């Protein structure tokens, strides 16, 4: 349903700042999802967007990809309204690491290269190294030609997520949306994937939106935390500010469920 404006320009990503300005949105007019949301994700930083199911967290990612347009307000990347830029350039600038990475019944090479048209072997290998899965791939008898099976069933959950991260990097994304990327993994693998995403964000100067319903998993990755509730931003600040001095009752209730969290 979304079409480009006549004369739409390619997105020019300088730093990767994402700004939502008084955004109102609903999938239908009877049920608003975002209710005047204003949020800035600074270039090169990781902002965790936390809140319960239905609060509008994942909707932000869909609007950023421009699967839908805002009803009012604006969403800008480095000052450019996403409604004014070409869809191809927008999608090339944003990588996504979902809760359950969808892999095709093909080789590991194909699944990584899918993130970029005409990706070279060197680009595939570089992406795999960034995702810390290159050595594992080389340990397989068929290496990058190993078939992953239907929906990647021949790989573990952590291996699938690393392939998904490599796919995002093969596309050269400067902005990454990680939507509940560790919720289906066990605690040990969760920590490994979180460390990897945190390292990549800093090493490559990426802008990351880390979407989660669980404050406990984002302490090691987020520069800032934005807490959403019923489509509104109820609290926003540095990780230390939110954990040590939460202002809102909802945030305090989230922290109360985390062993060792210091809720004021």
Description of the structure:
31% of the residues lie in helices and 22% in strands. With 264 residues, it is of the alpha/beta class. The strands form 2 sheets. A 6-stranded mixed beta sheet has the order 6-7-8-3-9-10. A hairpin with an 8-residue loop joins strand 1 and strand 2. The mean pLDDT is 90.
Query: Which structural class is indicated by helix and strand composition?
Result: alpha/beta
Unreliable stretches covering 5 or more consecutive residues: none
User: What's the story with the biggest beta sheet?
Assistant: 6 strands, mixed
Q: Can you give the helix content as a percent range?
A: 25-40%
- Mean pLDDT, to the nearest integer, reads 90
Q: Helix tally?
A: 9
Basic shape: globular
Annotation, overall tally of beta strands: 10
**Biggest β-sheet: strands ordered side by side in the sheet:** 6-7-8-3-9-10
**SSE order in H/E notation?**
EEEHEEHEHHHHEHEEEHH
Rg from alpha-carbon coordinates: 19 Å
End-to-end Cα distance, whole Å, is: 46 Å
**Relative strand content:** 15-25%
């Amino acid at each position: 349903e979304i079409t480009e404006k006549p004369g739409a320009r390619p997105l020019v990503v300088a730093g990767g700042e994402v700004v939502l300005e008084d955004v109102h949105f609903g999938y239908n007019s009877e049920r608003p999802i975002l209710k005047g949301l204003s949020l800035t994700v600074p270039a090169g930083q990781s902002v965790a967007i936390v809140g319960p199911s239905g609060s509008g967290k994942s909707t932000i990612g869909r609007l950023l990809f421009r699967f839908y347009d805002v009803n009012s307000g604006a969403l800008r990347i480095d000052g450019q309204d996403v409604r004014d830029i070409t869809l191809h350039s927008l999608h090339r600038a944003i990588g996504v690491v979902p809760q359950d990475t969808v892999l095709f019944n093909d080789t590991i090479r194909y699944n990584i290269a899918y993130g970029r048209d005409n990706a070279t072997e060197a680009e595939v290998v570089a992406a795999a190294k960034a995702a810390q899965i290159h050595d594992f791939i080389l340990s397989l008898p068929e290496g990058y030609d190993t078939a992953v099976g239907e929906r990647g069933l021949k790989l573990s959950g952590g291996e699938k997520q690393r392939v998904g991260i490599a796919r995002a990097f093969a596309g050269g994304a400067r902005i990454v949306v990680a939507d509940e990327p560790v919720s289906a993994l066990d605690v040990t693998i969760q920590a490994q994937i979180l460390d990897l995403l945190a390292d990549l964000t800093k090493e490559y100067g990426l802008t990351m939106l880390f979407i989660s319903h669980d404050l406990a998993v984002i302490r090691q990755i987020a520069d800032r935390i934005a807490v959403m509730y019923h489509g509104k931003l109820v609290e926003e600040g540095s990780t230390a500010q939110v954990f040590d001095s939460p202002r809102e009752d909802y945030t305090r209730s989230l922290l109360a469920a985390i062993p060792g969290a210091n809720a004021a």
